[in-house]
Amino acid sequence: xxxxxIIAPSLLACDFLHLEDEVKSAVAAGADIFHAxxxxxxxxxxxxxxxxxxxxxxxxxxxxxxxxxMIKKPYAYIxxxxxxxxxxxxxxxxxxxxDVVRSTLEQIKAAGLKAGLSLRPCFDASELDPYADICDMFxxxxxxxxxxxxxxxxxxxxxxxxxxxIADAADHPISVQVDGGIGEATIGLVAEAGxxxxxxxxxxxKTDDRLENTAKLRRIAEENMN
Length: 226
Ligand code: DX5
Ligand code: ZN
Description:
By secondary structure, this protein is an alpha/beta fold. Helix content is 35%, strand content 18%.
């Protein structure tokens, strides 16, 4: 039986003037989880939104919210995110030393949240290996983190395959998420490579018919998932 694709709209691409309507519209269009990008202007050269906004998003969302933390000190905000009501927290492999990365993932799990680990394009899938025991999700960035609307990096496809192998070798389920430039032209490629969880920003929110578009993305993904 084919697996189910998780479609995760990235709220970075939504209309912030109408945040509540955007959240409800995305849920009505068939979104499975929300992807909330937090940027601090230090780990990445951009600033997005903070934890009060995430709390507001959770308060009007019927689906889980995943926080993608592109910040230098994610460990300082795990309790805040737990209180905000998020379902999962994803951090990057290189925000600090391996010991700090591990203790942060442990902190996320101890808070009762799902833990994700993300790789910038420059890192090899083998970076994920030491943390597979504690991760619920691997996030393979398919653009440089920091901005929406960038071009998909096709050279990340072998890394998605390698991440899938590491995930499948673990003794618990690990989801493989992709983020950056995902849309109609690319979702089949990443699904075929092993992704099951698809962050879609521009190609989700900047469409005329979100319901039809989400169904199409899901269909292409599921046709290509192994
Ligand atoms: C980029 C963010 C992405 C971004 C994706 O650093 O992590 O989540 O919103 O946007 P699109 O889908 O437009 O590439
Ligand atoms: Zn993201």
